[in-house]
Amino acid sequence: MPVLARDFESRDALVAAYRAAFADLVDPDETVADFLGGRNHAERRLAGVNPSKYGQTRNHLAGDVTRLGPFLRHGVLTLAETRDAVLEKMRATNSRAEKLVNELAWRDFWRRVLAEIGEGVHGNREAWKTGLDDVDYALEMPRDITDAATGNDFVDGSVTELYETGYLHNQQRMKLAAYVVHWRRVHWHAGAEWMLGHLLDGDLASNHLSWQWVASTFGSKPYIFNQENLRQWMGQRFTGDSVHGPSPFAGTYEELNERLFPR
Question: According to the model, what pLDDT value does residue 101 have?
Fold first, then answer.
């Protein structure tokens, strides 16, 4: 392992040093996200969190989300101090904060599950509820998905955003996971490993157990969505339309369940 400097004259110099040190691991043309780390940036972002707006808008792609994930993932902020800051802001502004505190609690829950099961996070926690089994799912990600070349504006746009920014809104993560597992019949673990490798806030517990929740191997049923639901949360950015034909997400939930889970 190379010994790296701690101080650089610019961010570009830092990126160049890491590219050189890990040349065998990093594509020289790979995009570097513009997200800034460190304790100072973490404290400023935490201070700017609006718990009330988060609760009201968090499911919308353009909602007032916190973007605290990378700081929590890498230990720059702890869950406890984040919770305390949110509750203090709630008391000071007489606002509601239960939705944000609830999301922090979920992150804590995933971590506790991981601490209990260890390497078991890489295997099904429960049986599939899709009428299918492991043998029915591909073990590798399809190239058209990883190349952002499916022809569907939501899928390709989300994959491109993941590569360029290292971040996806939670609605994008859930829906992209559902597309990979249920529409394309790819094993949740292949999708989870792929996404984890591109997320700045990639947390093994939250990521893999959430993929299992979508898949139904850590939940009561498979998570799916339709085009109407996608448009509700994506605003004007994504329609779910495909250039090669009808949207794969078109139809009622009853129709989609019959199409995706024929058994």
Answer: 96
CA separation, residue 138 to residues 29, 133, 134, 141, 249 (Å): 29, 11, 8, 8, 21
Identify the band that residue 28 occupies on the pLDDT scale cut at 50, 70 and 90: low
Prediction pTM value: 0.91
Instruction: Report the distance separating Cα 62 and Cα 73, nearest Å.
Output: 22
Token pair recorded at residue 56: 């009201």
Nearest-5° Cα angle at 116, 113 to 120: 85
- Whose CA is closest to 230, among 181, 184, 176? 176
Q: Are 238 and 230 in contact (CB under 8 A)?
A: yes
Helices (H) and strands (E) in the chain, counts: 13, 0
CB 110 within 8 A of CB 125: no
Instruction: Locate 159 and state its tokens.
Output: 């994959």
What backbone phi and psi angles, to 5 degrees, belong to 152? -95, 130
Cα–Cα nearest to 178, from 63, 65, 257, 125: 257
Show Cβ contacts of residue 96 under 8 Å, excluding neighbours closer than 6 positions. 51, 52, 55, 90
